[in-house]
Each structure stands twice: as structure tokens, then as C-alpha cells.
Design goal:
By secondary structure, this protein is of the alpha+beta class. The chain has two domains: 120 residues, Jelly Rolls; 72 residues, Winged helix-like DNA-binding domain superfamily/Winged helix DNA-binding domain (Arc Repressor Mutant, subunit A, Orthogonal Bundle), CATH 1.10.10. The protein is built from nine helices and ten strands. A four-stranded antiparallel beta sheet has the order 2-6-4-5. The protein has a three-stranded antiparallel beta sheet with strand order 1-7-3. Strands 8-10-9 form a three-stranded antiparallel beta sheet. A hairpin with a 2-residue loop joins β9 and β10. α5 packs across α7. Keywords: DNA-binding, Transcription, Transcription regulation.
């Protein structure tokens, strides 16, 4: 069911779609549905057939890889810069990733059939999404390096900056338990890292509510992966 607060086509904010030529963008949007994503809503589980793709606008979504011996690890955080359902770009109908809504808000939803038709009809859309896949593959390599070599505090600072970008706000919700899952560390590690950032007055964190107080300071606390990933996106897609 659509929400009255969901944005209409002339208010589009998804960057992948907004960069398309007007005719191509309108053709895609003609088959899209405006939906309101709810926090915690599960879009896909591993092994699911991908029935729809999503282009977030004021929402953002976590993609988590669930290894057998661990609760999971976030492999991607997608907001209005990207899309959910990328295997369909390559013609793959199933996903091996758990996908759930981290930040609630509006998104565009397009059926897998409609997405395939849009790709077939627009070579510009097809080329742009192939470039997007290239960005994701390179960012995945960077994430592996970051997870292996960088301290939890620096990784947390990076994640908070990424979330702030996608939430379009200095304030958002996330619990210690969820952060431990997303960063692939124990809860005590998250508590220690968050406390260190709070003591430096970079953030305020209480009962799952985060407020970024000093973005410049948070950028200094983050590992260099933050700026590198964003620069990569701008170079290929900006």
C-alpha cells in the first residue's frame, strides 16, 4: 500500500535514474511504483528469486552476507546512489544476500519483468548500470581490505558517515547489536568504539539514536576508505 508521503516522479532523488536522459528516465518511471520502506523490513533472503528491484530515494538498505559460522557481515549499504536487485543486471534471478531496510523512507519499485524490459529498451540505462556494477565490484574489494586491516573505531566512523549520507540527516537510528552484525565484530567492540567517538564529541549516541555532532572530526577519525569509495563512484558515475 502506498503512503501519502511517498514522492512523485517529479521529485525523484535516486541518482542512477536522475542521471538518465529525460526520455529514458520517464520510460523507466512509467512502470515504477512508489513505495514506503519500513525499518527492519526484509526485502530478500538468501536463495530468494528476485521479484522486484528498488531504487531508494530517502531510504537506505543493508545487504548482509550470512556465513554459516557467523551471524553475518554487511557487504553493502545502498541509498539513493544505487539500487537493490543488481544480479538482474547480469540476468541472474536469485540472490545469495540477505537484504533488509536500515533507514525507512520512499523508494521506487519495479518488477523484475519491467526491469528487464527497461534494460532492453534503453542502451543508456544498460550502460549506466554496467558502470554501477563495476563500482560495486571495486568497492567490495575495498571493503575486504578495510575489514581486515582497519581498527573498529575507524570502520565505525566510516559507517556512520556513509549512513549520514544516505539518511540525508545528522540523526538516525541504529542499535549496538545491529552495528556489531553490520561490522562483523563483537558488541563490546562496538560499545568501546562508539564511546571513544562520543568522548571526542564527534557523535552523541543513546539508546540506538545517533546524532553526528562534528562531521569534519568524524571524517578525520574514519579510515581513508570513506573518501576513496565516494571518489570512485563520482569518477565512474558522477
Amino acid at each position: 500500500m502506498q503512503s501519502d508521503s511517498v514522492k512523485t516522479p517529479d521529485q525523484i532523488e535516486n541518482r542512477l535514474l536522475a542521471a538518465l536522459p529525460d526520455q529514458d528516465r520517464r520510460a523507466v518511471l512509467a512502470n515504477c511504483e512508489s513505495v514506503e520502506l519500513r525499518r527492519g523490513e526484509v526485502i530478500n533472503e538468501p536463495g530468494d528469486r528476485i521479484r522486484d528491484v528498488y531504487f531508494p530515494t530517502d531510504s537506505f538498505v543493508s545487504l548482509v552476507a550470512p556465513p554459516a559460522d557467523h551471524t553475518g557481515l554487511e557487504v553493502r549499504l545502498v541509498g539513493n546512489e544505487g539500487m537493490i536487485g543488481t544480479p538482474l543486471i547480469l540476468g541472474v534471478e536469485f540472490t545469495q544476500i540477505r537484504t533488509f531496510v536500515q533507514g525507512p523512507g520512499p523508494a521506487w519499485r519495479l518488477s523484475s519483468e519491467g526491469f528487464g524490459e527497461a534494460m532492453h529498451q534503453s542502451s543508456v540505462l544498460q550502460a549506466r548500470l554496467h558502470r554501477y556494477l563495476d563500482v560495486l565490484m571495486n568497492q567490495s574489494i575495498q571493503l575486504l581490505t578495510c575489514t581486515r586491516f582497519h581498527r573498529v573505531e575507524a570502520r565505525l566512523a566510516r559507517w556512520l558517515l556513509m549512513t549520514q549520507d544516505r539518511a540525508h540527516s545528522n540523526h538516525f537510528h541504529v542499535t549496538h547489536e545491529l552495528l556489531a552484525l553490520l561490522l562483523g565484530v563483537r558488541r563490546v567492540g562496538v560499545t568501546k568504539a562508539a564511546s571513544a567517538l562520543q568522548e571526542r564529541q564527534l557523535i552523541q549516541y543513546r539508546r540506538g539514536e545517533v546524532t553526528v555532532l562534528d562531521r569534519t572530526g568524524l571524517q578525520s577519525a574514519a579510515c581513508g576508505c570513506y573518501g576513496a569509495a565516494e571518489a570512485m563512484y563520482e569518477q565512474v558515475l558522477g
